[in-house]
Amino acid sequence: MLNFILKNHKASAGGSLKCQLQIRNKSREHAEHIHSVQGELHIWELRAQNRYEASFITDWKSRAASEGKRVIGKCDFRGVAWVIVTYVLDSTEVLVPKLLKPNEQAEVYFKNCLKSVKYPTFRGKTFQLRAKLKVTTMQSEKQGNNLVSWFPVQIFPPNSTRILPNEPSEKTDDTRPDEMSTHDLKVSPKTQLKNNCTNPFLPASEQSEDLELRRMSMQPERKEPVFARISDSNGEIAKMLLIRTDVKPGDILCGFLDFRSGTSVCTEYCVKLVAIEEVPDGIAPQMNKKKPNKSKTEESNYYGTVSEVVLGLDTTSFDMAIPPLATPTFSSNSIRLKWVLRFEFVITTKEYLLQFTKSKTTWRAPAKMHVKSRIWETELHVHSF
Question: Would 29 be classed as within a structural domain?
Fold first, then answer.
């Protein structure tokens, strides 16, 4: 009985995927023979048909067909019609004729070029990209004795501006109409990595770290706090302190709210972590023919909610966890993903609460109140590891 474990299954779009497959014979009595191992990286791109103009979908399918990709016309899933384009990147076959003894382990390495992949793995309501590595293990030269395993692969947005020391930068003018856009990043000397660093406690196979993954760890973080004064037409509602706006998947985001100097009384607040998918106006479908400039361009996914009743409180705090598998912020000509913290404050006037004051030291909260809500949001930048 063979057991498969895939390591280093993360890479950036436009780079290369270098993963390690461990094959272990879990049998305690019998040996297992392995003739060869083949790896194929399968990519699925899905777009919601009702979120794009028909002309854009047609051009996208024709461009994919001209590149040799397989186009699936329509697939209905949970009431949404998806157009799917799937393709297989270069396959790698490794000949490892070996007889695995009981509890013995063998290692196989695969390398796939992700130059044609322009998006990160993402499962949204408008656009989705999925990547899986198909591993076929042949135990003999006969076609019948094959073991097929599928492993999910995580692809991050391209980080072409993150350059390691002593590594030349390459600039090209070969841009595609749907190419990803990145921002110039300046890496401080403190965050630079040395090429000759080694770990004596790791085996030699794990010391050669993938350059693409090393680039991801060099993303500078904005650790200085962010202050904001939240107000409406009637005056101040609260002051907010946010520890930082640049976060990574798995981080804990901390914030503080101060209601002491507000002109209105906040009775309750709610903060949500929202991932917003935006489609440019030129390729988004028009909602109203009488108003051609109005188009349905946004779709929101909620990943966390914190709420609290703060009537009578001067200050409070909140913690919001970034999902460990959150897709980093990215942007292209056809889709943009951004993360925001969306606040909703339920407020009332101080004059309304005065009628429930019995004395200077006695006050009773009303059973019903006249309230109104105010929404305020701030954008976050979620980057790769």
Answer: yes
Backbone angles phi, psi at 301, to 5 degrees: -125, 130
3-state secondary structure 230-270: EEECCEEEEEEEECCCEECCCCEEEEEEECCCCCEEEEEEE
Q: Exposure of 150 by Cβ count < 10 A (0-12 exposed, 13-18 middle, 19+ buried)?
A: exposed
Tell me the two tokens of residue 189. Answer: 């000397």
The per-residue pLDDT for range 283-321, each reduced to its tens digit, is 777 654 444 444 456 778 888 899 999 888 899 999 999
Joined together, the tokens standing for residue 151 give 């492993």
> In this predicted structure, what is the pLDDT of residue 359?
63
Give tens-digit pLDDT for 61-81.
Answer: 888 888 888 888 777 776 788
List the one residue out of 43, 128, 120, 132 whose CA is nearest residue 83: 128
Total domains in the chain come to 2
State which residues form the domain around 64: 2-162+178-216
pLDDT tens, 253-265? 999 999 998 888 8
* 13 located within any domain: yes
Within-domain flag for 66: yes
Taking a C-beta distance cutoff of 8 angstroms, is the pair 244, 383 a contact?
A: no
Give yes or no: residues 157 and 235 share one domain.
no
Q: Check whether 215 has a pLDDT greater than 50.
A: no
**CA–CA separation, 281 vs 292, rounded Å?**
10
- Percent pLDDT > 90 in the chain is 16
Residues 293 and 354 in one domain: yes
Q: Long-range CB contacts (< 8 A, 24+ apart) of 321-324? A: 321/250, 321/251, 321/252, 321/253, 322/247, 322/248, 322/249, 322/250, 322/251, 322/252, 322/253, 322/273, 322/382, 323/249, 323/250, 324/249, 324/250
Q: Alpha carbon of 160 to those of 92, 126, 170, 185: distances in Å?
A: 26, 26, 9, 10
Check pLDDT > 50 for residue 234. yes
CATH number of residue 338's parent domain? 2.60.40.640
Q: Are residues 208 and 262 in the same domain?
A: no
pLDDT, tens digit, for every residue of 339-377? 999 999 999 887 766 666 666 666 666 777 788 899 999
φ/ψ (deg, to 5) at 180: -70, 150
**Secondary structure of residue 117 in the 3-state scheme:** coil
